[in-house]
TrEMBL record:
Transmembrane segments: 112-138
E.C. no: 3.1.3.25
CDD domains named in the record: IMPase
Reactions catalysed according to its record: a myo-inositol phosphate + H2O = myo-inositol + phosphate
Organism: Hapsidospora chrysogenum (strain ATCC 11550 / CBS 779.69 / DSM 880 / IAM 14645 / JCM 23072 / IMI 49137)
Alphabetized UniProt keyword annotations: Hydrolase, Magnesium, Membrane, Metal-binding, Quinate metabolism, Transmembrane, Transmembrane helix
Homology family: Belongs to the inositol monophosphatase superfamily.
Protein name, per record: Inositol-1-monophosphatase
Pathway(s) of this molecule: Polyol metabolism; myo-inositol biosynthesis; myo-inositol from D-glucose 6-phosphate: step 2/2
GO biological process, one term: signal transduction
Needed co-factor(s): Mg(2+)
Pfam families linked to this entry: Inositol_P
Positions with a binding annotation for Mg(2+): E79, D101, L103, D104, D251
GO molecular function: inositol monophosphate 1-phosphatase activity; metal ion binding
Amino acid sequence: NDQELQEIYDFAVQLGKDAGEMLMNACRRRMQGSGATTSVSYVEKASSVDLVTKTDNDVEQFIHTSIAQKYPSHKFIGEETYSAGASRDYLVDDSPTWIVDPLDGTVNFTHLFPMFCVSIAFAVGGIPIIGIIDAPFLRQTFSSCRGRGAWLNGTQRLPLIRDPVPPLPENAPSGCTFACEWGKDRRDTPDGNLIRKVDSFVNMAAERNGRGGKGGMVHGVRSLGSATMDLAYTAMGSFDIWWEGGCWEWDVAAGMAVLEEAGGLVTIANPPPDPTTADIPRAKLGGRLYLAIRPAGDSDSETGRQSQ
Ligand code: IPD
């Protein structure tokens, strides 16, 4: 019921903030240290670009313990618990489930690049209905609860940029910002080669609108190093489109909740359908390839993008 949901949401927001503070404390220790203490040691998981630090594990344990104490009957899925050997059937089903990435953007964290965050989602029926993204270095907390809006720092309703121009298909990719991630798979497969994907996307805009012609180009391509932060900024309206192949549930669950509550769309359809039609196949947790589209915004907004 409503009150129960509110309680879970309040608990999740506080949990995200406390966990974010743990991440930030680890950063502070490094920034105030000297020599070896300023770098962070990590262990490679599936490959040399798949990292885990002690902080990932400590924060996951803190979140897991807090949830188990407060909601012992709820299921818990965490990136590090899974990586430590939990089986495939450990992944999302219909029961009330917490889906957690204690540190999304671990590579950024190890390089002290501020784009990292705690990502906490609460899902029922396989659908994330609460999303908390705490990015402590940026002092940004994104949160959402189904039916109650998506928020930045609890006060600013998302999207912040209410662009009246629908992002797809007819107006994009011209003039848009496109975000994508490198993931952890470096194999050069036809499906997985990001450089080719980005190239075709950028060229699609150029071809549709005239190469180098006025107003026809993609404004920028971004890769933040955190799928969750990409989704948060798509919810803000800063990114028009985000794409990644090879995601896990914990990479996208909280971001999906926030973006969808802001009015954006996450789909597994490829190529993307017309977002102005009603029957867009929504992504269900459990897929690997995700594409997100920012909220369409409203037509009488004054904060929309100007073409001149
Ligand atoms: C990773 C980041 C990265 C994305 C990977 C994720 P992690 O999560 O979100 O940007 O490309 O697919 O696994 O390992 O930093 O928690």
